[in-house]
Amino acid sequence: MEFIVQWTFLPHDDPDDALAFYRDALGFEVRADVGSGARRRIAVGPPGRTGTAIVLEPPGATHGVTDDERRTIAEMMAKGTYARITLATDDLDAAFTRLRARGAEVVQEPAEQPYGVRDCAVRDPAGNLVRITEIGAGAPGIGLLPG
C-alpha cells in the first residue's frame, strides 16, 4: 500500500496576498479558486504535479470551529505560530533570492543544518512558516522533483 500527500491546508487572512506569494513568488499553479470573502479557498500546487495541492483558506473556515477558536487561530497566525509547511527544491539559492526579492519575510537564510540538510525559512503573508529544503545528497525527498 502506498500513500501520497494529496492536500494540505494553510490559513490565509488575505487571498490576494496569498496568491501573490504562492503563485507569483513561488511559481505555483492555481488549481481552484472558489468562494468569496470569508469563505474564499484557493488551491495551489507545483506545476506538473496535479496530485498534490496546498489549500489556502480563511482561518477556521471549516464547520464546527467556534468564534473563540477562530480568534485563537488569528492570534497564533499573527505570531507566526499556527501553521508551517516544508517544500523542497533543487536550487535553494535561486528560490531564496526570488522570495527575498519579492518581499518575503526572511526567518533564516540558506544554511547547512546539523541534521544533514541545507534549507532556509520565510513566512508567507499570513505568518505561516515556509521552510525550503534543498534536494541533494542526504536530503529527504531525493528523486521527488523531475530531473
TrEMBL record:
InterPro entries: Glyas_Bleomycin-R_OHBP_Dase, Glyas_Fos-R_dOase_dom, VOC_core. PROSITE patterns: VOC (PS51819). PANTHER family: GLYOXALASE/BLEOMYCIN RESISTANCE PROTEIN/DIOXYGENASE, GLYOXALASE_BLEOMYCIN RESISTANCE PROTEIN_DIOXYGENASE. Transmembrane segments: none annotated. Residues 3-135 form the VOC domain. This is VOC family protein. Pfam families: Glyoxalase (PF00903). It comes from Streptomyces lasalocidi. SUPFAM superfamilies: Glyoxalase/Bleomycin resistance protein/Dihydroxybiphenyl dioxygenase.
